[in-house]
Amino acid sequence: MVIALDGCHPVGARRFLGPFATGTNLLGLTNLPSHSEVTVSFDLLILLTWDGNGDSDNGPDIWTLSVAGGQTLLRASFLNTFLIDKNSAQSYPDDVGLGLHDGRTGAVENNTLGYSWNGCSVDSVYHLTFTFPHTTSSLILKFAGMGLQAATDESWGLDNIAVFAGPLPPTLARGPQNQYASLGDVTTFAVRAAGSLDLSYQWFFHGALLPAQTNATLTITNVQFTHAGAYSVWVSNSFGMVETQPVSLSVFDRKPEKSWEFATGSGISCPPAVGRDGTVYVCGSYKLYALKTSSGLAKSAWPMFRHDPRHTANAAMPFVFPPTVLAPVVQSDGTFSLDVYGEFGRNYQIEVSPDLNSWTTLTNLSTTALHTPVSDLDATHFRQRFYRAVLP
Ligand SMILES: [Ca+2]
Ligand SMILES: [Ca+2]
User: Fold this and answer.
1) What separation in Å is there between the alpha carbon of 142 and the centre of ligand 2?
2) Based on the number of CB atoms within 10 Å of its own CB, is 156 exposed (0-12), middle (13-18) or buried (19 or more)?
3) How far apart are alpha carbons 60 and 50 in whole angstroms?
4) Residue 280 Cα, ligand 1 centroid: separation in angstroms?
């Protein structure tokens, strides 16, 4: 039985059932034919600012599917924002308490439904499928959101619900994912499949059968370089077989170690990361700060929601927005012009080089706007010349 849910389309053109807030929606089926198991599949639409495991104020934001009088098929938190926060993670594809994953892990669509918050698209779609033992002629499925804030802030919807009573060939609910491990680590590949419940598994390494690796998970202990490569798995039952795309295990000789950490205060909400050039990055709400020791504190308003320096205009510290060189043009008379994008009221040095090694100053800018044009009337004398804008 397939139930088309096209009753409404709250935002945009997509028609689906919803949006729903915290609460339970029931799907009841009667007069089912004789069967020993049921498979249900559907699209779960996660709308607006779900907070995943969240914190004491905002989460966890949980969605569940259960069988009335029977088992819980899923009880997972979902994270729909791109905020980087040490407390933010979603449990899906694992149940709450069993996994910490990045926001939108496992989503098959991102920002396709037209929902937005603070001008930014915030929606995702998950395709879910479950098989469970069931024998009676009636069935009630319970779809529920739990712990959500107002429906204008966090809601969900359903589409393309299919319920099948009886045996089915296996289908992949979620294939294994690429893994990264250090020497000596333990690493695990996992596959989740739906379909008739007599499922069996066989794992392969570079296409060669791995003896005795016949579970839904493949665990490798004491990882060595020889373990690096391509893994895949066959899932089969009495009615058919499905094979996954190969995924890779990458092995590194040493795990990057965090050598230090500083306490972060109000507005700074994630542990720092160090870039290749030594720049230290930390983030707060909607902002990423780059602290560069060679030129003092710098800031960058990327990548949380918008690349827009105005979002950091209220920063409490004397941050400096690094200049960007845009729109290089060789004019018809052979002179060269470019646009320096930076902050209002800053001093930037425009430098030139014949070879990207030795640099000399072309001009010093004192900006009176976000965009400042610069011309190099001398450019006709050079076969090639490189330009950069730096903080003096
Ligand atoms: Ca929220
Ligand atoms: Ca929430």
Assistant:
1) 21
2) buried
3) 9
4) 28
Residue 155 pLDDT > 60, yes or no? yes
Question: What digits encode the pLDDT tens for the residues 273-300?
Answer: 666 656 666 665 555 665 654 444 444 4
Ramachandran region, residue 317 (left: φ > 0; alpha: ψ -120 to 50; beta: rest): beta
Residue 320 has pLDDT above 60, yes or no: no
Reading the block at residue 97, the tokens are 């308490």
Q: Residue 178 and residue 82: Cα distance in Å, rounded?
A: 21
In the reported structure, the alpha carbon of residue 175 is separated from the centroid of ligand 2 by a whole-number distance in angstroms of 28
CA of 273 to the centre of ligand 1 (A): 25
- Kindly give the distance from the C-alpha atom of residue 58 to the centroid of ligand 1, in angstroms, as a whole number: 6
Bond prior to 167 in cis (omega within 30° of 0): no
Residues sharing a CB contact under 8 Å with residue 301, sequence separation 6 or more, in sequence order = 287, 288, 307, 308, 309, 310, 311, 312, 321
- Compute the distance from residue 180 Cα to the ligand 2 centre, in Å: 31
Query: How distant, in Å, are the alpha carbons of 106, 204, 214 from that of 39?
Result: 20, 27, 23
The Cα 234–Cα 302 span in angstroms is 42
Residue 32 burial class via C-beta count within 10 angstroms: exposed 0-12, middle 13-18, buried 19 and up: middle
Query: Separation of 315 CA from ligand 1 center, angstroms?
Result: 23
388 C-alpha vs ligand 2 centroid, how far in Å? 44
Rounded to whole angstroms, how far apart are CA atoms 208 and 205?
5
Residue 389 has pLDDT above 50, yes or no: yes
Strands laid side by side in the 360-366 sheet? 360-366, 347-353, 386-390
**Residue 35 burial by Cβ neighbours in a 10 Å radius (0-12, 13-18, 19+):** middle
Torsion sign, CA atoms 290, 90, 57, 121: positive
96 CA distance to ligand 2 middle (Å):
14
